[in-house]
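Objective 1b: paired records.
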Amino acid sequence: MALGALGAGVAALVEGRAIDHPPGVLAPDEPTQRLVQRAPFAHGEYELTPLADFELEARVLSVEKYSMDGGARVSPIDFALGWGPMSDSAVLSHFRISQGARFFTIYPDEQAIDLQTAMRNASNMHLIPADGTLKDRLKRVKPGSIVRLRGQLVSVLGPNNFTWRSSLSRTDTGNGACELFYVEAMEKL
């Protein structure tokens, strides 16, 4: 019995471990975004209004799942994502990355690239899975994974006058700077 519990614990640790990569840029391109004007659509008890078609290939820097905050019913997971230099293990070795309360923070050491470049090549994205199957797939993604995500940046209207709006810039920081990303497709690379 104890041996089985130990084996299950070891398996859980291995399964949740970040994926390592050798040095080198793994996702060289910036996200692509095209502003759109489309009618709102229903997503469960929420109304989503598309703001832009959005696609990116990026390295997952951190994953945070939510179940209790005000947005968890529409966006149960956040990915901190990096592209360009922020997809390179050699660059990332000079940063500590944390996520929580719908924010992500990077802490550079003295040898890190400048913070402005780092922040232009990384973002915290609040993910709205298009369906339950995609939700399950997104929740299984580990830090270090290289993913291609496609969908739309949106604004959300929900029960009790709940509102949430995506940033449309990769250069902003702070409150309101995250992308609210309705994910229609994900590919692990």
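Objective 1b, second protein:
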Amino acid sequence: MRARANILEQIRHLEAKVRLIARQNKVVRRLMSVPGVGVITALGFAATIDDPTRFKRSSSAGAYLGLTPRIYASGETMRSGRVSKRGDDFLRRSLYEAANALLTRIPRFSALKSWGLRIARRGGYRKAKIAGLSGILCGGP
């Protein structure tokens, strides 16, 4: 029981450190203002993207994370496939979970949520979550 109590105390201590780091970073605080984005996701984004000015467009940051469709081209055939999934797996998964939370668990409406729900009506929730993921990344619809 003491070992469990010590582990829980260490977790609380580390969580307090992470929250302190998040509070001190302006970019992380701004990302956390998006519904569904928490401390870990925002810190992961800030650590992965580092300097957002290195991307000319926000879609370039999406491509950096593997949010572009695969292209199959052979002769006269050209097909667009699923998301390539190249890039930082942790951040892509974290943003996907944030988009899932935004679309399914957060009751308050926002422009980003209504945009994602319109996409969900047209193409399903999986596509809407990927679009929401890029919406979170790009700063909205």
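DSSP finds seven helices and two strands in the chain. The mean pLDDT is 83.
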